[in-house]
Target: protein acetyllysine N-acetyltransferase
Amino acid sequence: MIDYNDIQRAAEWIRNADGIVIAAGAGMSVDSGLPDFRGTQGLWTSLLPAGMTERDVGSLTKGDCFVDKPVDAWQFYGRALQVCRQLKPHAGYAMLDRWARRVAHGAFVFTSNVDGHFQAAGYEEARILECHGTINFIQCGMPCGDAIWASGNMMDGVDIDALAPSALPRCPHCGHLARPNFLLFDDQCWVETRTTAQWERLRIWLRAVQRPVVIELGAGTAVLSVRMFAESVRGPLIRINPDESEVVGEGVGLRGTALDVLKALDAVLAGN
Ligand SMILES: [Zn+2]
Model:
């Protein structure tokens, strides 16, 4: 059960804010049916190439997987791209967007999710920071330069199990194997220019906001980027998490899944 007084406090901060920072971790995507892309949770196994088991997930989340097993890696991430494009963002995205429209500076999204679901839900591209990059762009695997390009519909309708080495995406500049533009573990090759530009836009937006409130959603302690950012913003923190909802300092912890707690908050915000 979510404490009603805590929900009221959180709703009050949202009403009084002039800017909403949406800090989203894997739990935000899980509610749309997506796997935690940097974890090793069960849903990953549905994306694995034939013959591989959950034990093999680790080898396909390291930076060198596109060098060591290019076909397996592209089967894995090709299927992930299909899933990201097929699944629809859950109703919580629209609720947050509605609240953001009532405050002077709107919202800025900081997400570790690579699925592009804030864009898919209609959020403005210039108000999103994807700290681990995105599956919706690809880059040279070497890389030979900073260029990235949209993955778009390249995997739509493709029979992933039959993906041949000759059909794998290649860099248009040097011909080297391409890879998704997101950060893997032990990854020396991620092109971060897009994320760097997003950081710049976030800093400029934050400077204009006088009374920010941070809504942190489904950010675990295993990958700390989202929590660390959420705690760095000077403003009350609303931490929504099913099992790690404690807050130190000004803020409130709301225990539950992202979608459940957003619905509870939305009911209070709509009521008065
Ligand atoms: Zn290249």
